[in-house]
């Protein structure tokens, strides 16, 4: 029974000891051995044959067996030693673990002891600091307080998790009480030095107030904001008195005095109080910004009261001076306080990054912008991305209707002047060398449009631009009607508007009724002018969309005006076609009325053919030369004339009576 169990154990052991080739190779490299018993491919039969190669060698079998048994005992001893060694390792590990646990306890004790000592030191510092803070506060030693208070607050942060301890909580409450007392005391000191009512304190600032500002930097931000607010309010109190609404200097014509006053005040502040406030408070900029807010409010109020007194010249003057002042602020200050909650920022409605604001009106058109031509054009400040742009000038936007109405009036007068000039000077002279001349009035109109667009976009890119666009549309249509369509040639009996059928009714059958050379040139000139207006109106629409606010782009649409100019072009071409067509009608009529049955001889050229050719040679070269700059419309004229003349020629051809047999034979 024991032998069977040992055999099973050996088989299981052999199964367990079947190692992979890689593991076996690694073992051989670590423990090299020449013993056959250590080989992975050990063969018992070969090993026995090696020990007993011959029958005579069996005589030593007992000795060999004893050696093998001795070797087995040694292996057993080695295994036993290793196993016992592993048992001792576990005991040693447990012993080391106990030592480590003791060391950790010592480390924790050391750490806790260090923390306790540090906390006690902080507590001692906190208690002493609070006592000193209270004493210094009473003596107004703000310079020492500024340094001590920050340290006390830093130390107090270490005790945040110990606020459940009554003594710690009491110290924290004393610190808060000291901060509150400091804030109230500093505000009282500033109120005493710069009272809300009365004159400013004479002389320069005291060192006490300068140190108090350092303390305010550490206290609740509302203390700093209150100091800034009260100081600026007191500093600008004189301004509100000098420029009250009922004062003569408060009106727009003396707006320069407002800006001159604040410039003097800024210089005065730098000299007297520049070192009292910390540089990071940006007090000079804050004073200027608050001045702008006050000025915007005051100007808006007085302009509402005296709205009827605002004239365009005065309005543009005030806007110019204001935008110049905003440019001055942009050069001197960074605008960092505009995003600060201490002083409310104003959102500018004016265009500060418009790509076309660099455009300047031409000198010859300056006089068209004003009543007397002596008003300076308000130019954009040269500083790019001006953060102050609109901070004051926003107040003028509700009154820009005055500017729009002025432009409406000016454009109406301009159109009337164009009409009068055309009547006085007559149509342009025929110019067959350079093609049909564009009427100079259209160039003047669009130059003025450009000037108005640039000027208005400097004032606002909102609703006023839409209103100006409406004015542009109105006078584009008036120009098309009064200058272009209204000056197309008419017969002496025509009393109404342009009707081509009535215009040519009296011409039919009469050589005298044809348009003269001057009239043909005028029609071509009006056609060329209408084409120029059509193209320029499209460009005008694009630039208006670039200048106006994004939300208003959809309201810019000059399609109707472009269609009006297209109608003028079509009418001009049709007028030229029907003039030539009507001139050829007598010849066609003569052709159809000829007694073809009496024709017996064929001549070189019939009189009606000569007449048609003559009219074509007279009109077409003139039209071609005068439409040299607009070849596509000359091509349209030729196509329309051919489409009109050929069917008419065929119709008259069918009206001809048969020719005589003799004539037919001659023709054949």
Automatic annotation (TrEMBL):
<feature type="domain" description="Vps53 N-terminal">
    <location>
        <begin position="95"/>
        <end position="422"/>
    </location>
</feature>
<feature type="compositionally biased region" description="Basic and acidic residues">
    <location>
        <begin position="369"/>
        <end position="378"/>
    </location>
</feature>
<feature type="region of interest" description="Disordered">
    <location>
        <begin position="353"/>
        <end position="381"/>
    </location>
</feature>
<dbReference type="GO" id="GO:0000938">
    <property type="term" value="C:GARP complex"/>
</dbReference>
<feature type="compositionally biased region" description="Acidic residues">
    <location>
        <begin position="357"/>
        <end position="368"/>
    </location>
</feature>
<dbReference type="GO" id="GO:0042147">
    <property type="term" value="P:retrograde transport, endosome to Golgi"/>
</dbReference>
<dbReference type="Pfam" id="PF04100">
    <property type="entry name" value="Vps53_N"/>
</dbReference>
<protein>
    <submittedName>
        <fullName>Vacuolar protein sorting-associated protein 53 homolog isoform X3</fullName>
    </submittedName>
</protein>
<dbReference type="InterPro" id="IPR007234">
    <property type="entry name" value="Vps53_N"/>
</dbReference>
<dbReference type="GO" id="GO:0005829">
    <property type="term" value="C:cytosol"/>
</dbReference>
<dbReference type="InterPro" id="IPR039766">
    <property type="entry name" value="Vps53"/>
</dbReference>
